[in-house]
Each structure stands twice: as C-alpha cells, then as structure tokens.
Amino acid sequence: MSSRARRIAISVAASLLTFPLASCGVLGASGGSDDASPTKGNDITVGLLLPEKENTRYEQFDYPFFKAKVGDLTRDEGNVKYANAEASAAKQAQQMQQMVDEEVDVIVLDAVDAHAIGDSVRKAKDAGIPVIAYDRLAEGPIEAYISFDNELVGEVQGRSLIEALGGDPSSSEKIVMMNGSSTDPNAKQFKAGALSELNGKLTIAQSFDTKDWKPENAEANMTEAIGKIGKKNIAGVYSANDGMAGGIIKALEDAGVTDLPPITGQDAELAAVQRIVLGEQYMSVYKSYPQEAENAAEMAVARVQGRDIQFEALARDKVDSPTHKGIPTQLVPVVALTKDNLEDTIIADGFYKVTDICTAKFEAACKEAGL
Length: 371
Known about the structure:
Layout (H helix, E strand, L loop, with lengths): L2 H14 L28 E6 L6 H17 L5 E6 L4 H13 L4 E4 L8 H9 L4 E4 L9 E5 L1 H15 L9 E6 L5 H14 L4 E7 L5 H15 L6 E4 L2 H13 L15 H9 L5 E4 L1 H16 L3 H7 L2 E3 L7 E6 L1 E4 L5 H5 L6 H4 L5 H7 L2
Parallel strand pairs: 1-2, 1-3, 3-4, 4-5, 5-11, 6-7, 6-8
Antiparallel strand pairs: 9-12, 10-11
Helix pairs in contact: 2-10, 3-4, 5-6, 7-8, 10-11
C-alpha cells in the first residue's frame, strides 16, 4: 500500500472511531513494568522538552498525561523532568544540555527548531542518552519518532474546506492560505497535504508562512491579504491551526466582515471548539494528545528498560529526517472536527465536558447544536 493510500485508510478508520484517554498504544505492546526482564528498574528519569505555551495543548494535555503514564508504568518510582522552551530554540538547547549534564535516562523532545536542535541531539547520543522525537521530527540521531500523520492532517483540512464551499467549488474562487512556521517540519507537511487537495480546485490568492505560529502574526498576515484581495473576494481561509484561526477571524471582523468565510484549524482548542459551535470557524483537526503523550511515555520507558520487543511494536512505521533514514515511528490517527461530530469525538473521549464548552455566552448556540 502506498503511503498516501495508507494515510487515507487511516483517515477513514479514524473518522469511525473515538480514542479513549486511557489508550495504551499499539495492540499487544502495552504491557506494564512486569512483562519482561528490564535492564533498568522503575527508578528512572525521563526528560520531557516541550516547545511553547502559546498553544494550550502542551500544558493542558501533553505534559500531565505524559507524566501520569510514566508514573503508571513505573509504579510511581519513575520521575519526569520537564521543561518548556517558550518558543526559544536557544533556550531549548540550554534545557537539553542541562538534562544531559544531569544524566537523565531518556529525552522526549518536541523541537522548537528541528534543524537547530540537531547538535544537541548528537550530544545526548554521545552521552548515551536516547532521544525520542515527539510531535516534530528533529534532526540528528533520533532513536524513534511519534506524531500524527501530518500530511493527512493537511489533506483533511483541505478536503474540509472544499466541502464547506459546496464540494465542487469554482477554481476561480479565491482563498488565503495561512501556513505554520517555516522552522517547523510539521508545517511543511501540513502544507503539502493541504495543497494536494486544494491545487487546481481553488485559487490560492495569498499564502503565508506564519512566524512562530503566533495568532498576532496570522492576524497581520490576514490584514495584508484582505487589503490585496478585498474582503468580499475571499471565499475561504486555510488556517493550519486554531490559534492562527483566531487571529484570522479578528482581522476579518476588524475589516467589517460579518458573514465569515469557512476557516479551518487544528488542535481542537477550547476557544476554537466554541467558535465552531457559534459558526465562526468551520472545522478543526482533532488529535488525541492524551493518546500521543501516553504512547510516547510507553516508548520512552520501554527503551530505557530494554524492552526491545515492546519498543519495536510501538514504532512499526519508518520515516526519514534530513539527516537520518529509517527512523522507527508511530503515527497516531486524526479526525476532522465539525459542529456535527463534537459529541461523538471530543466529548465522548473526555477531552472536554459539555460544561467546558457551553458557558453562558455559548448556551444558545450549544442548544442549537444539540449539546
């Protein structure tokens, strides 16, 4: 099966399934700390390096679920040493060096800058510390990689935008493309996936690579696009994530747009879910961060404890980085999130409660949406 066919197969399967937060990873690879003879015991230290706080997912989901899973797997004897780089590649390099100096057993890394962190990955490797790339594929001698199928994310976003425009829009209809940061390899994959759906079907009148993924930068880019295209001539907006979608909506509203065009997103942030309920944002991509975090914790503990069979089962795919080939990989499925499936996805999975979404401001819209 081709990689594209595999991604589409995953997308179809994912659209029919929800993922419980207690997911234990790949079938047959979720054993606890007693299912083999480990080379290390439960008293291990796992380093977790996350990239920024602008996106609420890292503090709200990734870190707490990762930490809890390490605790479960090590009978609460394992320790997670956590640091957030707050979007600074230099700060992340310092944090990683500190973890190397403190001789942690394994590092799980979500890189701010996938290229810049390569030297730090090599230093960790030289010190005998394996590095697992989390969410973004860093350069250097990465031991394994876990993320979502990023091209599929872009395909789902692009396909959703076309569906929002009637399923067979005129190729002359103009859209704005708001991509993520040029330093993020995931952004390139989202963009490639989206373009595979959008090219030839719509006119991409303006396209931006948004510095640091910041909503205020997306807002400025959108203001520029409105000035060049005209607010009445924008049929839709491809936004690579929810934070930027918020900035895009602000720019449109500041320009006097009252009937917003369909706008995509990613991450299922609470504010974005509420915008979807209101009809301000058409969709987001729901990615089970708890599942990704828990599976990453399993990979890290299995690697440190020498459970090779379990580790290999958790990373059955292979990907290439600019510096290394055939990196063992796990790709977690994604779901297109719209007003029609909120209850069957994020609410059923416990990602949010109805009371989280349907605060006073959104009560009427929630009732209309059947929440």
